[in-house]
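Purpose: get a first structural picture of the assembly so the mutagenesis plan has something to point at.
Setup: two entries, given in the order below. No constraints added.
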Amino acid sequence: MVRNILSRLLQAVCVLLGVALLIFIMLRIVPGNPIATLMGEHADRAVIERMTAELGLDQPILRQFIRYLADALRGDFGTSYSLGKPVAALMGAAFGNTLKLAVLAALFAWILGITSGVIAAVRKNGLLDHLFMGASLLGVSMPVFMVAMLLQYVFAYHLHWLPIAGVSSWKGFILPAVALGWNSAGSVARLVRSTLLEILEEDYIDTARAKGRGQLGVLVLHALRNAMLPVITMMAVQFSSLLSGAVITESVFSINGIGRLAVQGISGRDIPLLQGTVLFSTLVVILGNFLADCLYSVLDPRVRKEG
Amino acid sequence: MLQVNHLCTSFFTDKGEVRAVDDVSLEVPAGKIVGIVGESGCGKSMTARSVMGLVRAPGKIKSGEILLDGRDIVRLSEHERCAIRGSEISMIFQEPMTSLNPVVRVGHQVEEALLLHEHVKKQEAEARAVEIFEAVGIPDAKKRLRSYPHQLSGGLRQRVLIAMAMICRPKLLIADEPTTALDVTVEAQILRLMKKLCGSGTSILLISHNLGVIAQVCDYVYVMYAGRIVEQADTFTLFDNPCHPYTKGLLDSVSSLRSGAQVLDTIPGVVPNLLHLPAGCSFSMRCGCCMEKCADLLPELHETEPGHRVRCHLFDKEEPA
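Result (structure tokens, whole complex):
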């Protein structure tokens, strides 16, 4: 088990380094000088060259990369060109909002998804099954921005129940969380339903019933635990993608989060900012998968390694 | 003990009604092992599931009664059936490899029925589980309680299933092909174990397609074909003097092996589609002795000698003029 974790950690470090190098190179071989973009069309060539040299952008890529890594290890991810503040501080401030949004969206998605998936499976081909599966199909197929705008139109513009954008109070998180979680809820519901239906056909379900367990007992104690295995993997992947920045949702609802920083980084050719956000997303995805693996081995004794 | 009267279990599919169990009556006396034998799909397992109340939709018990000590359990509510399942009647399934929950320790799975029906304390349940594990011949019982199913061999898993079925000391144990998935040496051990259980007062309904298994352990045998009982007799009589052409065919396919014949005797044809059964005897299409009336007229179960009944027109009594 310990060896397993150590080897996973080593893998994680390699992936992180690889992604860092890749994004580093990509951002530098794109045509155009970021400093020129930053300073506008009419900037003096001499000034641009001086700035480029100051920021070290004229040096070989590998040397730049090593310097970047050394700084990053000390927690310094550079200073944002466009915002003029340290990237680490910017991300630290944005992370709170992104985390709140991700947790709320995930809770909404999982509670709704698992409950409706289970009900749909138990009432297979019944009215509730068709209703939930229809809704989840909408959830899976509707793009986030569309859900977001619909919600804004109905609950903010029309009913005035919730703020249309911004997160000055906790109420501001409700619509974005629903918009963001809607899609995940749909896919979780569908996966829970199909897995559960499969599990309910298994022989050990008959064994449990033959022992005298009632329907609820069989469902909760024997079927759900098995059905949750693939669902947990899906949820971990979902959570890391929610956490690594809901680019569209944060933009539509003007929330200062990681996703919005990334958008700023792209539109402003802001290399340090973009590098920082991409690295952060990578780290979150790696951690999410790692967590899923750990959870999986807790729930399923078959994947647990001996010793 | 257990008495099944005119049981009909059907599956209502889009293509029509499939009569999986058709007018089956049978009896399992206390302390006896009764066998049901027949080809795959003849309704043996469905009969067992009907008795357990585990028929899955779209299947349904259409009519008939199942009396356990005189009480008709078909009419009970689901809640009342749950109280009987596992405590008074229990069942061992065909597939030891897939019949245990893969993510729950076997000890816990065995104790579950005890905790459910007898409301004992956890420690007592564990002690009883160790006891029953030893009784069914699981070595290192205490340690095995903490194993997961995937850590056990097929034979051990089947023993766990038997232990699970036996832990509440049921009156009736239904064993659906308990040895089919096992190799021959393990099969012999399991059969011996079942005989021992029977000696301690449990009645057993043993379902098998294997005549050898039936001959070894059963006191009385029912032969099923296409959802109906076609012959019933005590084991010795059935093997000594089979009457129904189907039973004869079954026995011939075994004895031709013994006599060292080069070609295996088989029954020509296949089991008819249960959706389109002939109006008369369902074996008539494959029967060597088929007569004119066989295809149209369903034969009754005739008693040829005390305790020996056959569903075949060959044994029709002289009709009174």
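The first helix of chain A runs from residue 2 to 29.
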